[in-house]
Structures are given as structure tokens and as C-alpha cells.
Amino acid sequence: MYYFIVNPGSRSGNGKIIWKRVEQILEQEQVEYRVFFTSYRYHATKLAREITSRSEKLTLVSVGGDGTLNEVVDGIQNLERVTLGYIPTGSSNDFARSLSLPSKPEEALHNILHPSYFQRIDLGLMTYGSLTRRFAGSCGCGFDAAVCQEALESPIKDTLNRFGLGKLTYVGIALKQLLLFRPAPVTLTLEHRKRLHFSRTYFLSALNCPYEGGGLKMCPKARPDDGFLNVCVVEGLSKLTIALMFPTAYLGWHNIFRGIHQYRVKSLEIRPEKSLPFHTDGEPYTPEDVLTVSCLPGALTIIAGNKV
Questions:
Q1: Contact at 8 Å (CB) between 47 and 69?
Q2: Please, are residues 121 and 300 in contact by the beta-carbon 8 Å criterion?
Q3: What is the pLDDT of residue 157?
Q4: Model-level pTM?
């Protein structure tokens, strides 16, 4: 039995149209399945929790963008009994890019129905106060989270998605936020022992995969199956330098700039001196407490594409 969680509003409402194409193939191949549609934020988490609370092994397929996938991953109960499939229909699809998953819905479905490769991947776990959230691709705080927050609410994203240019949303909003954002002091503690202080932090990201933000290769060496998170800190640079840095990040060449720091850890603590926006897989939050981020090695089995 296949269980599908579909975000019909992904890709500016085209998610429902894409699902109809997927459903037609399922009917043609006489696949036994059930489908659930999301209708509000965090609905996918609730659905995933309900579906996976049973004892049997099952295949759960997320149909949406990275935000929908994040909600699904966060809601899964009994991780060891679930195999995850992913049909990417979002604007950035960084998780699919990182794992070399098919980008076309029909090809992604074929890969799920006729899998050739299963991969055990790590998940990230973000904790603040008494709350926790899992993530599949990345989490972070500062400037990049502010971009995610505005992009989620931006009507420009819907317009550009209609022309297949959704990724330009992040470029335009990033330039705007760069002008407005004020860097803040942040203290990191790596592996509970190594403390680092950055007085002018623009953003920091903890990545389970190489890509975030619509194709930015922020941590080129990150792998989703090595038991570690890769951390990228951007601090102390002028805004002009950061604007020049971003085009190089699409190729993973941004590390040539002084003020870009990379670390490989199993856990870290993030202590900002003022409240900063935060995100997990592009889903924004504004926590008021110290954040801890850790890696959950080999937590989930996914129907993969090519070996990465």
C-alpha cells in the first residue's frame, strides 16, 4: 500500500494538476494507494503522524515542495517502519537535487513504483525549549531564514512559478533582505565543547545535504548519509561582498571569501544575542530560546535516485 500526502497548493496551485497526472498513472498500473490532501500549514505533519502511527510497514510519498517534505518527515512515527518517497513539485526542490531524485513528476513516480536503490539517510533534529523539529535538508538562522519567511508570504513567488521562474523569487527577496538585515552576535558551541563567537553574523546554516535556498551549494561536502551535519557561517563581510558571494555559491565556490566558515559536526548549540528568524527546510520560525541542532544518523529509508 502506498500512502500519498499531496500539497495541492505547491507550485502556485499546480500541485493539484500534477497530482491528477500522477493519479492517472497509478490507475493505469492498478496500484493500491490512498491519498490525503493538505489544506493548511502543518497539516502534512498531522497526516503523516496519523498514517504512520500504525504498526505495519508502509511507503509514504510526499508530493510537494521542500516545506511539505519537512512537515511529512517531522510527523513520521516509527521511522524504522516507513519508506519515504518524494515527488518534488516545489519552487526550489533542494532535497531532490541533493539526492539526484527525478525532477519530473512522472519519472519520480516511476522511480517510486519501480525502485532500484534504497538509501538510509540521516535526519537533522532542531530543539528549542520543549519543542523539537526534524529536518531533511537544512536549518539555519539569520538572513537566509528571513528570506524564507518573506518568500513564503510573497505573491511574487506565485507569479514567477507560473512561468517556471520560482527560484528568482529568492534572488529578488535576498537582495531586499540584504539591504535591511542587521548582522547580530551569535555564539556557537560545537560538539558541546568548542565555543566560537561571531560578532557580526549574517546567517548560519546546518546542512544535511549540499543545497539550500533554491540551488545554493552552501556546504559542497555535505552528505545525507555520513552521520554528520555540515555548518556554514557567514559573518563579518560587507553587504556588497555578500551580494558578490551569492552567485559563486551556486557552484560551491563561495568558500574563497574570508568570513565564510565551514564545520562538520554531530551537534551544535546556537545562542544568538537577539531574536533571529530561523528555518527548517525553508519553513520559518522565530524561537526565543537557545537552539540545539543534532544529527540522527541513518534515521530514515528513502527511495533514492542515483547513488550520491
A1: no
A2: yes
A3: 56
A4: 0.90
CA angle 82, 134, 276 (to 5 degrees): 165
pLDDT tens digits for range 277-291 = 888 988 887 776 789
Beta strands in the chain, from DSSP E residues, in sequence order: 2-6, 33-37, 58-64, 82-88, 118-128, 131-135, 138-142, 184-190, 194-207, 229-235, 260-265, 267-272, 278-280, 283-285, 291-303
| Closest residue by Cα to residue 234 from 254, 214, 251 | 254
3-state helix vs strand vs coil in the chain, percent to 5:
35, 35, 30
- For the record, the C-alpha cell of 295 comes out as 544529527
**What single letter denotes the amino acid at residue 66?**
D
The number of C-alpha atoms within 13 Å of 290 and in the hemisphere containing its C-beta is 8
Q: Are 148 and 67 in contact (CB under 8 A)?
A: no
Contact 280, 127 (CB under 8 A): no
Q: Tell me the pLDDT tens digit for each residue of 110-135.
A: 999 999 899 999 999 999 888 899 99
Rounded distance between C-alpha atoms, residue 144 and residue 121, angstroms: 24
With a cut of 70, list the residues of the chain below it in pLDDT: 12, 151-171, 288, 306-308
Mapped to the 3 state alphabet, what secondary structure does 22-79 carry?
Answer: HHHHHHHCCCCEEEEECCCCCHHHHHHHHHHCCCCCEEEEEEECHHHHHHHHHHCCCH
